[in-house]
């Protein structure tokens, strides 16, 4: 009775293999060849590991790794910290109000291009609603997005505005579904508010933190949209995160062979984290799991 | 009891009891006030940008924020027709709708099979599906670009629909599997003892029970495709350009059309806002691939 599942999954699997696996294998092939639309000496000849070797000596590639780290670490800390604060603040009022989470999530689900534009416009020092005041109060002297010092913090700011609600809403769902018994037990034991938060709430929220941070980390690693709209990776390469550099190599310089090698390396780096997410998600989905 | 207390408080007089009552009331209102303030601050840049869409150019570019203004629809008309943004809206709508229909048609039965059947290699397959969903867009986009250019589908709606399938179809399968898992297997068994085939039981007994899940998955799929940017940027041509790519095209090195940009941005955001309110209690579940049942 539980056999014959292949017929049911076949259409979906054929489609996923056609749009996911086959193109990936073709691109893997490109990564071992000299392919470029802008370099006439690259005629598709087989060059084995040369693209990968070249990548290991490419300062722009290492710059993009550094930019990604400099963006991801503060962004994730900010979003988790603020997200927890907002979740705790909203929890008492959100219990009976179904609309809180949808309203909170509006910036998260707004088209990212629009989010980037809101950032670009709001931070403009001459007429942006936030930029005007940053300028007037002397907090930021130059145009944020054109400055080597402020461009990345500006991206982190807009990214945090977009994604803090994502983490907050996950933690809020967690807070609203926590069991009552541990709290009653803690009160009987005479614990104060801080102790209860530290020893009961935070440990109970842990699985929610794990899911939120893993998903956010994987998405942050792939960031392109708001950077493409706000700075295009500039000034210079100051905000050129890892996917932005891959985009430049492939679709501005048209070095498809070298670019494919870059993409393969990006894939291998994030695969580890996706594997981790898979373990977390399937463990929680298993019967008897949390 | 509170009635008895209030009867003893002289009108306008500040007594200990009156003050306590005030603090008690304030304390009960505080969460609501905080709630409104947090949501308002969070939404401010968003609302401000959309209200600029109704303003004249000199108003938008003013170095002092103007609060009172006479609304105009000129930016919407110029954006939609002079900049021909309406074509991008049509493209985005067609692509998002087709992606959603395709992914539901093949994804829902697959999810049912993952929830119910013993399939050898099921968990590795499930992981393969998640990997396609979570891989960075550029990792999916470059290979697709190479393949679509070989089969001459670059710049077509079909090419973009196939590209969007890489993240919507895995999403449909993952999330729907969770919704099917929530339905007891006894119901399939009962339907089949009543004479239904496996497919009949799926169609007539199970699908009606997961209706709200299907709606949620469909709305999410539509939003994901509607919002998608990088695939659109790489895989479309001037005729098949989607709305997000078209909006970005309005940012120009010499004189961005901010009025039109704000107007068109709010048009791009409206469908999402409407769908979010229909999603409600499935929002967090969808965003976490079913891990958190909000």
Structural summary, described in words:
The complex is a heterodimer of chains A (290) and B (294). Chain A has 290 residues and is mostly helical. Chain A has a single domain (61-281), classed as MetI-like fold, CATH 1.10.3720. In chain A, 70% of the residues lie in helices and 2% in strands. The longest helix of chain A is centred in the first third of the chain and has 36 residues, at 59-94. Chain A starts with a helix and ends in a 5-residue tail after the last helix. Chain B has helices at 2-8, 16-52, 57-60, 74-82, 85-116, 122-134, 137-150, 157-181, 185-193, 198-206, 211-227, 230-235, 243-248, 258-279, 283-287. In chain B, helix 2 crosses helix 14, helix 5 (85-116) crosses helix 11 and helix 8 runs antiparallel to helix 11.
List keywords for this structure.
heterodimer, A: mainly alpha, MetI-like fold, two-stranded antiparallel sheet, 70% helix, 2% strand, disordered C terminus, B: 294 residues, mainly alpha, disordered N terminus
- Low-pLDDT stretches of chain B: 1-12
Strand percentage of chain B: under 5%
Proportion of β residues of chain A?
under 5%
Structural Rg of chain B? 26 Å
SSE string of chain A, helices as H and strands as E: HEEHHHHHHHHHHHH
The geometry of chain B reads as flat
Report how far the terminal alpha carbons of chain B are from each other. Answer: 38 Å
Supply the number of helical segments of chain A.
Answer: 13
Helix content percent band of chain B: over 70%
Helical residue percent band of chain A: over 70%
Total beta-strand segments of chain A: 2
CATH topology type of chain A:
MetI-like fold
Query: Largest inter-chain interface?
Result: A-B, 99 and 105 residues
Poorly predicted runs of 5 or more residues of chain A: 285-290
């Amino acid at each position: 009775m539980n056999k014959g599942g292949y017929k049911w999954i076949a259409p979906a699997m054929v489609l996923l293999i056609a749009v996911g696996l086959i193109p990936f294998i073709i691109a893997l092939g490109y990564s071992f060849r000299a392919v470029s639309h802008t370099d006439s000496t690259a005629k598709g000849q087989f060059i084995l590991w040369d693209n990968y070797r070249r990548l290991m000596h490419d300062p722009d590639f290492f710059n993009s790794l550094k930019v990604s780290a400099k963006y991801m670490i503060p962004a994730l800390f900010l979003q988790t910290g603020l997200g927890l604060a907002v979740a705790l603040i909203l929890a008492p009022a959100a219990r009976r109000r179904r609309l809180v989470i949808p309203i909170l999530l509006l910036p998260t689900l707004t088209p990212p291009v629009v989010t980037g534009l809101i950032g670009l416009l709001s931070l403009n020092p001459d007429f942006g609603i936030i930029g005007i005041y940053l300028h007037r109060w002397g907090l930021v002297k130059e145009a944020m997005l054109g400055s080597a010092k402020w461009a990345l913090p500006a991206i982190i700011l807009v990214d945090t505005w977009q994604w803090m609600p994502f983490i907050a809403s996950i933690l809020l769902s967690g807070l609203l579904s926590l069991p009552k018994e541990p709290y009653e037990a803690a009160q009987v034991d005479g614990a104060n508010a801080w102790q209860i938060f530290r020893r009961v709430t935070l440990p109970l929220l842990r699985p929610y933190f794990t899911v939120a941070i893993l998903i956010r980390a994987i998405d942050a690693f792939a960031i392109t949209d708001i950077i493409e709209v706000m700075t295009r990776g500039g000034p210079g390469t100051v905000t050129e995160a890892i996917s932005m550099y891959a985009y430049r190599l492939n679709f501005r310089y048209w070095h498809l062979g070298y670019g494919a090698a870059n993409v393969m390396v990006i894939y291998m780096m994030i695969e580890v984290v996706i594997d981790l997410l898979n373990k977390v998600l399937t463990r929680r989905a298993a019967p008897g799991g949390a | 009891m509170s009635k008895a207390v209030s009867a003893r408080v002289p009108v306008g007089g500040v007594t200990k009891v009156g003050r306590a009552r005030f603090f008690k009331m304030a304390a009960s209102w505080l969460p609501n006030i905080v709630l409104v303030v947090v949501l308002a601050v969070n939404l401010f840049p968003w609302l401000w940008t959309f209200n600029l869409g109704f303003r004249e150019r000199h108003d938008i570019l003013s170095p002092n924020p103007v609060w009172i203004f006479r609304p105009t629809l000129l930016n919407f008309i110029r954006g939609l027709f002079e900049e021909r943004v309406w074509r991008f809206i049509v493209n985005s709508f067609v692509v998002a709708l087709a992606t959603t229909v395709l992914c539901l048609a093949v994804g829902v039965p697959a999810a049912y099979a993952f929830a119910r059947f013993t399939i050898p290699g099921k968990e590795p397959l499930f992981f393969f599906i998640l990997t396609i969903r979570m891989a960075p867009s550029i990792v999916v986009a470059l290979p697709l670009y190479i393949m679509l250019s070989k089969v001459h589908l670059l710049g077509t709606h079909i090419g973009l629909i196939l590209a969007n399938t890489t993240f919507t179809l895995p999403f449909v399968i993952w999330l729907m599997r969770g919704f099917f898992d929530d339905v007891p297997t006894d119901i399939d068994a009962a339907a089949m003892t009543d004479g239904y085939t496996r497919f009949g039981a799926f169609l007539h007994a199970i699908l009606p029970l997961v209706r709200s899940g299907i709606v949620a998955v469909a709305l999410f799929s539509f939003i994901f495709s509607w919002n998608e940017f990088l695939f659109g940027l790489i895989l479309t041509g001037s005729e098949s350009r989607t709305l997000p790519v078209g909006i970005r095209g309005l940012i120009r090195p010499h004189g961005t059309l901010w009025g039109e940009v704000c107007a068109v941005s709010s048009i791009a955001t409206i469908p999402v806002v409407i769908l979010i309110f229909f999603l409600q209690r499935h929002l967090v579940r969808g965003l976490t691939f079913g891990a958190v049942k909000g």
